Amino acid sequence: MLTIGVDIGGTKVGAGVVDDEGRIVHEALRPTPADRPDLVAETVADVVRELAEGREIEAVGVGAAGFVDETRSMVRFAPNLAWREEPLQKKISGLIGLPIVVENDANAMAWGETRFGAGRGQSHVVCVTLGTGIGGGLVFDGSLYRGRWGMGAELGHMQVRPGGRPCGCGQTGCWEQYASGNALVIEARELAAERPEDARILLGLAGGKIEGEEVTEAARRGDAVALAAFDTLADWLGQGMADLAAILDPGCFIVGGGVSRAADLFLDRARKTFAERLTGNGHRPLAEIRLAELGASAGVVGAADLARLR
Ligand SMILES: [Zn+2]
Predict the structure, then answer these.
(1) What is the distance in A from the centroid of ligand 1 to the CA of 168?
(2) Measured between alpha carbons, how far is 117 from 310 in angstroms, rounded to an integer?
(3) What is the rounded CA–CA span in Å between residue 251 and residue 254?
(4) 12 half-sphere exposure, CB direction, 13 A CA radius
(5) Residue 179 Cα to ligand 1 middle (Å)
(6) How far is the CA of 171 from the centre of ligand 1 (A)?
(7) How many whole angstroms separate alpha carbon 102 and alpha carbon 109?
(8) Element at 76 (helix H, strand E)
(9) Structure pTM?
(10) What separation in Å is there between the alpha carbon of 144 and the centre of ligand 1?
(11) Burial readout 214-253 (b: 16 or more C-beta within 10 A, e: otherwise)
């Protein structure tokens, strides 16, 4: 049976028809009406109508960034779109006659990766999505963990350094301020300002404005500051995963998101830091730290599968 998964991103709404083995059989895209969040439901309905044309579709899963309530129908708060208590499920189902479930986008990605990607066959999985921030998803005993009110697994907002860098969530010192794509750039900018003589390649590439791509490229060319920024990210990542393992004891971690495309620059060091900082290390099995496999389609595949299992 086919279901449709929809991933509402900040710039585009991606959608796919997905079969029960997690394969996308047809895809469609729309730009996100970011300045008109009230129109997002219509955009989703529009892309679903296109994909459903001539196919028998059982249900639709919609992944959205933000706090999705425990009934999986309402987005209580979205960081990128100006949604507050948005009744997304009701709006979309009013436009198309199909069952709809709404899911946090990082949860949908975690589910997609666990079922059909790097976590295949694993029952206890922690997904860490490194983008501009850090998204998270937890699978326990083979089920997605959502928390009491649907707001669980916001791993990026563990406050690893209270009083530290301010975070978009209103708190300070959150993990995503130290181990995300944005954190990498902040670190590289700070180091380059302190030690410009060690950042010649980076500064030459960036021409005054250091962004993530330049840090990655400079690190590949051996720039000392860019490499140090990746080392810092790797250590914060490994430390955070060790703390998560102390509580959750997963069988594997899956590291995905845009920053993971540069995994060759930080993942081995993160594994080493993880093993060193893990409580009881040497006397327990080490959770594997794997790279995500599904890339940008994990959210669509996961949302579609969660709609099937609704
Ligand atoms: Zn935060």
Answers:
(1) 6
(2) 20
(3) 10
(4) 10
(5) 12
(6) 5
(7) 13
(8) strand 75-77
(9) 0.94
(10) 22
(11) bbbbbbeeebbbbbbbbbbbbbbbbbbbbbbbeebebebb
Amino acid at 96: I
- Around Cβ 110, how many Cβ atoms within 10 Å? 33
CA of 241 to the centre of ligand 1 (A): 17
Residue type, position 255, single letter: V
Report yes or no: 17 and 51 within 8 Å, Cβ to Cβ: yes
Which residues lie closer than 8 Å to 148 by C-beta, 6 or more apart? 70
DSSP 159: B
Question: Could you give the CA distance from residue 78 to residue 81 in angstroms, rounded to a whole number?
Answer: 6
HSE (CB half, 13 Å, CA atoms) of 90? 7
The reported pLDDT for the residue numbered 77 is 84
Separation of CA 184 and ligand 1 centre (Å): 16
Q: How far is CA 27 from the centre of its chain?
A: 21
Residue 129: strand pairing partners: 135, 256
* Model pLDDT for residues 119-142, shown as the tens digit of each residue: 999 999 999 999 999 999 999 999
Distance 72 CA to ligand 1 centre (A): 23
Calculate how far, in angstroms, residue 251's C-alpha sits from the geometric centre of ligand 1.
26
Dig out the tokens for 60 from the structure: 């639709």
Q: What is the pLDDT of residues 286-305, one digit of tens each?
A: 999 999 999 989 999 999 99
**Residue 174 C-alpha to ligand 1 middle, in angstroms?**
5
Q: Which of 150, 170, 158 is nearest to 108 (CA)?
A: 150
Q: What's at 51, amino acid-wise?
A: L
Task: Output the CA 177–ligand 1 centroid distance in Å.
Answer: 8
Q: Which amino acid is at 151?
A: M
